């Protein structure tokens, strides 16, 4: 007996990699944030993407500090918070002069999903001003007509996944089992599955299309 394909009535997606090729801008911002720290950081692009997949784009510099700083009570976390804040500040400043390329597969997915009557929402690892700037760059005044929800995981804090997913479902008026989260970060994907959402782990340069989405989506845990 053929398994019935899942019905997708809502898609939540992150912006990094999925809708925009932000990795080069992140890498430059990270190097700028690390200047003067005395910590050598020479990540390649694949290494940066691997780190972001492991901890999320919000906290990539958590893993950049020397191991010995773990012994300083609260020191490493406090310094990591400052470095991550500097990273996002440099990233946002760079958006004024250096626009990331849009991922054509992500743009087409949005068009096809909207044509099919699917609701769309953004849960971004970027601070809200950076996420808003990117969306405005691509969609102009149509952002609110295309996306039912635009939220920042960075601003909400990484410990509030469950509340953010509940807010997204409530705002969009959909159930978890008919919603797919597309993300590059394993912690974000795991939290979504625990909240009952289906998930797609996207890796550059990955296949991403409305037609293939039901087969790609992993079941909630």
TrEMBL record:
GO molecular function: hydrolase activity
Entry keywords, A to Z: Hydrolase
Gene3D superfamilies membership: HAD superfamily/HAD-like, Putative phosphatase, domain 2
Name of the featured protein: HAD hydrolase-like protein
Species annotation: Pseudoduganella rivuli
Lineage of origin: Bacteria, Pseudomonadati, Pseudomonadota, Betaproteobacteria, Burkholderiales
């Amino acid at each position: 007996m053929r398994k019935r394909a899942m019905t997708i009535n809502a898609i939540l997606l992150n912006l990094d990699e999925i809708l925009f090729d932000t990795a080069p801008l992140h890498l430059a911002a990270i190097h700028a944030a690390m200047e003067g720290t005395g910590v050598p950081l020479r990540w390649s692009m694949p290494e940066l993407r691997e780190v972001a997949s492991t901890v999320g784009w919000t906290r990539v510099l958590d893993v950049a500090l020397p191991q010995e700083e773990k012994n300083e009570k609260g020191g490493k976390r406090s310094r990591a918070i400052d470095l991550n804040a500097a990273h996002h500040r440099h990233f946002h400043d760079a958006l004024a002069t250096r626009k990331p390329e849009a991922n054509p597969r992500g743009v087409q997915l949005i068009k096809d999903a909207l044509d099919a009557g699917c609701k769309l929402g953004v849960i971004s690892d970027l601070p809200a001003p950076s996420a808003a700037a990117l969306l405005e760059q691509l969609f102009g005044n149509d952002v609110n007509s295309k996306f039912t929800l635009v939220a920042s995981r960075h601003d909400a804090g990484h410990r509030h996944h469950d509340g953010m997913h509940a807010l997204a479902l409530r705002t969009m008026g959909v159930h978890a089992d008919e919603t797919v989260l597309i993300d590059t970060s394993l912690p974000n994907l795991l939290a979504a599955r625990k909240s009952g959402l289906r998930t797609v782990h996207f890796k550059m340069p990955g296949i991403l299309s409305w037609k293939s989405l039901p087969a790609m989506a992993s079941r909630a845990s």
